[in-house]
Amino acid sequence: MEAKAHLKYLRMSPRKVQILCDLIRGKDTKTACAYIMQTPKAASEPMLKVLLSAMANAENNHGMNRDNLVVSTAVANPGPILKRGRPRAKGRYNRILKRTTHLTIGVSEKA
């Protein structure tokens, strides 16, 4: 059984969040928390919150042991893009794409 936690509409590019997802996928939760806390990325703070939430969901909703949890899935999918613009020279206009991310972390017990 897998316990999940979601974070939607994170105002960060999925490409930046996916780096941390690849780092923690398959690790046990204590090691994953340590990796996230020591990584100097902007995505580390929201990702740590989602990981702790998934751990709490596993413990409270599914009755899993907190010491035996492993990060089974960590996915950063693109969300809706906010389209903004900036005036440029000669009356032109450049579009700025502000990307969002839907982050999902799932934890399960070791076999």
Strand content: 35-45%
Helical residues, percent: 25-40%
Structural class: alpha+beta
Reading side by side through the largest sheet, how are the strands ordered? 1-5-2
- The general outline is elongated
Mean pLDDT across all amino acids: 95
CATH H-level superfamily: Ribosomal protein L22/L17
Q: Would you identify the regions where 5 or more consecutive residues have pLDDT less than 50?
A: none
Give a quick account of the main beta sheet: strands, pairing sense, barrel closure: 3 strands, antiparallel
Report the radius of gyration as a whole number of Å: 17 Å
CA(first)-CA(last) distance: 11 Å
CATH class: Alpha Beta
CATH architecture: Alpha-Beta Complex
Figure out the total of helices: 3
Describe the SSE topology:
Layout: E1 2-10, H1 14-24, H2 29-38, H3 44-61, E2 69-78, E3 82-87, E4 93-98, E5 101-109
Antiparallel strand pairs: 1-5, 2-5, 3-4
Helix pairs in contact: 2-3
Summarize the structure.
Helix content is 35%, strand content 36%.
